[in-house]
Structures are given as structure tokens and as C-alpha cells.
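A.,

Following up on our hallway conversation. C-alpha cells first:
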């Protein structure tokens, strides 16, 4: 089992039916989200076990709730500033939607990347497609995806594949 990071609306990340419910909950709290799906970006598949490993690695060196407090099941980061993770109820979902901030996520990722000697430069990140099998693949994919979400002002989703 793997996971991908998806930039776009909830339907692009979670499928039409469930995505519509999630999108309604998200837009109910963030009405300023752009309408329509916009340009969709999907990272390459990375191992789902890497998420827990990344969380543990980050937690070992710093406070980073945008990374360590997010669960793979149902989560997104939105293109608005906030240090808090909020939880929104979604009809037909067993767990609430966890929502963080892309701005805060990028700040945490840049801090972690500097501590772990990972690239954050756009040129280096764009050349990472051939590196996805290395140890830091998930962190690299998350940084690249978060930057795409910030540029396109769209939510970033974690999707189990």
C-alpha cells in the first residue's frame, strides 16, 4: 500500500461521491477556497509506512504539528495561514477531516529539511522524480507537493493508494 499527495479539490483526491461530502465540509469552514478543481497535481506513489517514519523522524528533532499531528486517513492542508490543526465533521466519514495550513507546513518542512540536509530549492525538487525510492522520498514528495499547492492556491491532500 502506498500514498500520494494530491493538489486540487477533494473530488480529485478522494473520488467524486465522498470527495463531494468532504469538499462541502471544507468549503463550509473555508468559503474563500477557489471554486472548481483547477490544475491537479499528483505526486508519485511513496510507501505509506514512510509517513509514520517521517513523523517519528521529525518529532525527534523539532515541534511540527503540521506533520506529526496529521493522520493519513483523512487530511488536507489549505492555502491559508494558521498554526493550528482543526477537525471538521464530514458526513459518512468515521473520523473528522484534519485540516492544516500549507504555509505552516512549508515552514515546518523547510526547518526539518535544513536539519536533515534535504533539498528545498525548486530546481533540486523538480529533479526528484528519479529519487523516489530513496529514504527521504516521502519528505521530498511532500515538500514538492506543498510547494505546488502554495503556487496554485489549492488544498493539498494525502491519499492512500
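Then the amino acids I'd put at each of the 161 positions:
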Amino acid at each position: 500500500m502506498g500514498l500520494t499527495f494530491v493538489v486540487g479539490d477533494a473530488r480529485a483526491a478522494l473520488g467524486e461521491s465522498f470527495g463531494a461530502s468532504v469538499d462541502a465540509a471544507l468549503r463550509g469552514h473555508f468559503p474563500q477556497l477557489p471554486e472548481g478543481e483547477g490544475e491537479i497535481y499528483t505526486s508519485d506513489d511513496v510507501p505509506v509506512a514512510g509517513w509514520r517514519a517521517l513523523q517519528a523522524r521529525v518529532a525527534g528533532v523539532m515541534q511540527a504539528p503540521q506533520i506529526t499531528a496529521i493522520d493519513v486517513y483523512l487530511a488536507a492542508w489549505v492555502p491559508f495561514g494558521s498554526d493550528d490543526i482543526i477537525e471538521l465533521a464530514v458526513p459518512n466519514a468515521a473520523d473528522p477531516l484534519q485540516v492544516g495550513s500549507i504555509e505552516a507546513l512549508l515552514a515546518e518542512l523547510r526547518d526539518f529539511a535544513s536539519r536533515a540536509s534535504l533539498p528545498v530549492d525548486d530546481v533540486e525538487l523538480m529533479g526528484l522524480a528519479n529519487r523516489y525510492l530513496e529514504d527521504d522520498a516521502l519528505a521530498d514528495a511532500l515538500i514538492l507537493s506543498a510547494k505546488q499547492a502554495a503556487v496554485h492556491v489549492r488544498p493539498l491532500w494525502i491519499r492512500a493508494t
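Residues 137-152 form the longest helix (16 residues). Curious whether your intuition agrees with the design.

B.
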